[in-house]
Amino acid sequence: MCGIVGFVDKNITDKKPVIEAMMDTIKHRGPNSSGELLDGDAALGFRRLSIIDISSGMQPIYNEDRSKAVIFNGEIYNYKDVRKDLKEAGHVFTTDTDTEVLLHGFEEWGIEGLLKKIRGMFAFVIYDLKTGDITGARDFFGIKPLYYYNREGTFIFGSEIKSFLKEPNFKKELNKAALKPYLTFQYSALNETFFKNVFRIPEGHYFTYKNGKLSIKKYWDMSFKENNLSFEETVKRIDKSIRESVNEHSISDVPVGSLLSSGVDSSYVTAVLKPQHTYSIDFDTSTYEEGTAAKMLADKLGLENTRGIVTKEEAVKSIPLIQYYMDEPDSNPSCIPLYFLTKLASKDVTVILSGEGADELFAGYANYGFHSHSKVIRVVAEDLKHLPKGVKYKLAHGLKKLPNFPGRLHLYESTAKAEEFFIGQAKIFNEKEAADLVKPEFEKSRSVKDIVMRSYSKVSGYNDEVKKMQYLDLHQFMSNDILLKADRMSMANSMELRVPFLDKEVAKVAAGIPTKYLLNSKDSKYALRVAAERALPKEWAKREKLGFPVPIRDWIKTKEVYEQFRDLFSADFAAEFFDQDAILKMLDGCYRGENDDRRKVWTIYTFLIWYKVFFIDDGKKPDVDPKVLVN
């Protein structure tokens, strides 16, 4: 696992110190070695995390006549098969790496042909030393990050935005349009990041930079189309695809561990992998105990489990460092346990498997219409789904207006049109609340509806509302939050995190599964849970999803944490963004137990911490070293 950086800038005469400074900024992504290419107006850099023989994986890697070079972050799991085809076509390899497969594959098939052949997670860039053309791509789901800046003759790309700060002609500026949507979604929800003129290469896209012009094109997308397979055959295919994917993802020259929570996703992966090392995390509070259940499962499977304990003090102390590594503000509280979990695992292993992506592919979220524990309500909701669309939507509008009663939300979300209520898994402030809270200069931004319609417009022909919601989450919540924090928190600890559920072969299976097999009166993610019973004790396959529960309410109600928050909310720079009286009132009420605005308070706090790190402290890495206790 690695990090890549590069730029094209004719106004920089001595490119070597610039590219080296950029590489140093992301040294955590690859602490073992580095490589660079300097050619004309271009410079490319690479940081390496060794999971194979270091001498064979040095980058950039060149083709036979050294007319092209590649830098690459990720893993190509089927590279040996692709390599075999390329050798038969006459290509000469100088290494046994998956990186070189990308280069020769590009020569043989072009970028689109190459992307059809490979299976993995990746962000790579290929540079043509004869023409100066640059071609790059990001993987199917956005597991690996890739950003760019293209302005006034300066083109910069890289795995992390913080490296751009070292390029002299990069203009660091806050993107004011990003703040209001962030308050609703909890993550950076626009194509343009919180840094003005810095954009993501979208998941499933590739780019070309030629003669100063940038072109970006989609090469892959998730397409849900229900098949006619029986439930039994569906379960069989799920289990087969997961086992094959875990096997592919576990190929490594170093030991592979597994992150283990109490949920079915990581448990399924762990039970199939059967690694020597598993890891779980808890906080020093009795509010939630993920680690205890994880230890029980590890014992049942005969596996070693290391359980970490994070104290309140260490958790809060880590927030500036976490936001530094994240590059953009992200108020998903699970960033904290994931940071400490990968820190814990890094003591023993370099490669770790995790369960991200299962909820999006196999309909695991309660917000897809699975809120009630009542069997009667669930059965009624299933029956209502079969009503004609017009009748069903009219019923939903009526349910929305009714006073609340047990099961109302479940019935409403089972009958309503997805576009009318679903914006993804996180909804912190509603749009009006966000607009009222920010200063006028931050009110102008894309509306929440415009943002979600970016995805919904592509699946407007779908008859299934759940499939629409899955598609939206795949392209918003998963790519911009779930996978971003998975990459950043693991890389912060120089760990390679792999996600077997997010494999294009698994996705092929998931795309064809009828919703009735996934979300029904019996459970969410039902077919996956039944498949998991082939590897797990039955009670584990049916465990309710918790995610990474974080006791932020308990923290905010302690005097010392409350005072830290209040100091930040009272700071002069906070008044540049927010109605300061309003955010202080919200915080005080949360501290005194007069409201339960913990997530709103946390979202504001996270942004202010991030802004302080990157704009007041000029992107300097916070000087803290959080510890994790081992139980």
Automatic annotation (TrEMBL):
<dbReference type="Pfam" id="PF13537">
    <property type="entry name" value="GATase_7"/>
</dbReference>
<dbReference type="InterPro" id="IPR017932">
    <property type="entry name" value="GATase_2_dom"/>
</dbReference>
<dbReference type="InterPro" id="IPR006426">
    <property type="entry name" value="Asn_synth_AEB"/>
</dbReference>
<dbReference type="GO" id="GO:0004066">
    <property type="term" value="F:asparagine synthase (glutamine-hydrolyzing) activity"/>
</dbReference>
<feature type="binding site">
    <location>
        <begin position="354"/>
        <end position="355"/>
    </location>
    <ligand>
        <name>ATP</name>
    </ligand>
</feature>
<feature type="active site" description="For GATase activity">
    <location>
        <position position="2"/>
    </location>
</feature>
<dbReference type="InterPro" id="IPR014729">
    <property type="entry name" value="Rossmann-like_a/b/a_fold"/>
</dbReference>
<dbReference type="Pfam" id="PF00733">
    <property type="entry name" value="Asn_synthase"/>
</dbReference>
<dbReference type="InterPro" id="IPR001962">
    <property type="entry name" value="Asn_synthase"/>
</dbReference>
<dbReference type="GO" id="GO:0005829">
    <property type="term" value="C:cytosol"/>
</dbReference>
<keyword id="KW-0315">Glutamine amidotransferase</keyword>
<keyword id="KW-0547">Nucleotide-binding</keyword>
<dbReference type="InterPro" id="IPR029055">
    <property type="entry name" value="Ntn_hydrolases_N"/>
</dbReference>
<keyword id="KW-0061">Asparagine biosynthesis</keyword>
<feature type="binding site">
    <location>
        <position position="98"/>
    </location>
    <ligand>
        <name>L-glutamine</name>
    </ligand>
</feature>
<dbReference type="InterPro" id="IPR051786">
    <property type="entry name" value="ASN_synthetase/amidase"/>
</dbReference>
<dbReference type="GO" id="GO:0005524">
    <property type="term" value="F:ATP binding"/>
</dbReference>
<comment type="pathway">
    <text>Amino-acid biosynthesis; L-asparagine biosynthesis; L-asparagine from L-aspartate (L-Gln route): step 1/1.</text>
</comment>
<keyword id="KW-0028">Amino-acid biosynthesis</keyword>
<feature type="binding site">
    <location>
        <position position="259"/>
    </location>
    <ligand>
        <name>ATP</name>
    </ligand>
</feature>
<dbReference type="GO" id="GO:0006529">
    <property type="term" value="P:asparagine biosynthetic process"/>
</dbReference>
<feature type="domain" description="Glutamine amidotransferase type-2">
    <location>
        <begin position="2"/>
        <end position="212"/>
    </location>
</feature>
<dbReference type="InterPro" id="IPR033738">
    <property type="entry name" value="AsnB_N"/>
</dbReference>
<comment type="similarity">
    <text>Belongs to the asparagine synthetase family.</text>
</comment>
<keyword id="KW-0067">ATP-binding</keyword>
<protein>
    <recommendedName>
        <fullName>asparagine synthase (glutamine-hydrolyzing)</fullName>
        <ecNumber>6.3.5.4</ecNumber>
    </recommendedName>
</protein>
<feature type="binding site">
    <location>
        <position position="281"/>
    </location>
    <ligand>
        <name>ATP</name>
    </ligand>
</feature>
<feature type="site" description="Important for beta-aspartyl-AMP intermediate formation">
    <location>
        <position position="356"/>
    </location>
</feature>
